[in-house]
């Protein structure tokens, strides 16, 4: 049994060296992906290997998410909603993104961890993890398209955005009722 374990360890070392050799031309892209919270080197390599380095084949991040099977389905007919489970895609990419989403959800004070917490409260753990995996995939598409590192928005970005949304919706509702609205901050 020890000889088998030693042989397997040697095989792992050899394969890891071969992977590192093959990924050498894409080292900068892997480093870009590693800037996303929850994505480590091995996960970045898998994501890049499954999607490919050229993002021109996907016209938008939505097309990539649909191809990968990480976007929720929309099944509705005659006002009845059916199952909204995700479709089948690359199972290696999906498993890696789910693993990265779990790691990102455990991180402290990041946009992805706060997004996980907000969705988890309303929809549950599994749907929140898939939503975070979708966000990671969309971020990866943008990063590989523009070759720029991940820009952390911070945990409070969702709260700030929701305040702006509440304000815009309230103004739009009043304008639909025929009122003219001018917003001014309250000064004490």
Give a nutshell description of this structure:
The chain has 188 residues and is mainly alpha-helical. The chain is built from eight helices and two strands; from the N terminus they run H-H-H-H-E-E-H-H-H-H. The chain has helices at 2-23, 27-33, 41-51, 61-68, 91-106, 111-123, 125-146, 157-176, and strands at residues 76-77, 80-81.
**What is the residue-mean pLDDT, rounded to a whole number?**
86
Helix content: 55-70%
If helices are DSSP runs of H or I spanning 4 or more residues, what is the number of helices? 8
Q: How big is the Rg?
A: 21 Å
What does the main sheet amount to? 2 strands, antiparallel
**Helix and strand pattern:** HHHHEEHHHH
Please specify the SSE layout and strand pairing:
Elements: H1 2-23, H2 27-33, H3 41-51, H4 61-68, E1 76-77, E2 80-81, H5 91-106, H6 111-123, H7 125-146, H8 157-176
Helix pairs in contact: 2-3, 3-5, 4-7, 5-6, 5-7, 6-7
């Amino acid at each position: 049994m020890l000889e088998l374990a030693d042989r397997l360890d040697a095989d792992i070392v050899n394969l890891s060296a071969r992977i590192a050799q093959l990924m050498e031309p894409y080292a900068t892209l892997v480093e870009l992906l590693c800037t996303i919270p929850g994505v480590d080197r091995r996960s970045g390599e898998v994501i890049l290997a499954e999607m490919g380095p050229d993002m021109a084949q996907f016209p938008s991040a939505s097309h990539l998410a649909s191809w990968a099977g990480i976007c929720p389905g929309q099944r509705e007919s005659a006002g009845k909603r059916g199952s909204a489970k995700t479709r089948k895609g690359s199972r290696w990419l999906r498993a890696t993104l789910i693993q990265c989403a779990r790691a990102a959800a455990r991180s402290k004070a990041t946009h992805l961890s706060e997004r996980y917490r907000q969705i988890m409260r309303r929809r549950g753990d599994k749907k929140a993890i898939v939503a975070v995996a979708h966000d990671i995939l969309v971020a990866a598409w943008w990063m590989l398209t523009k070759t720029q590192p991940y820009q952390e928005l911070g945990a409070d970005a969702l709260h700030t955005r929701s305040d702006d949304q509440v304000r815009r919706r309230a103004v739009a509702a009043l304008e639909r009722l025929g009122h003219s609205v001018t917003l001014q901050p309250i000064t004490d």
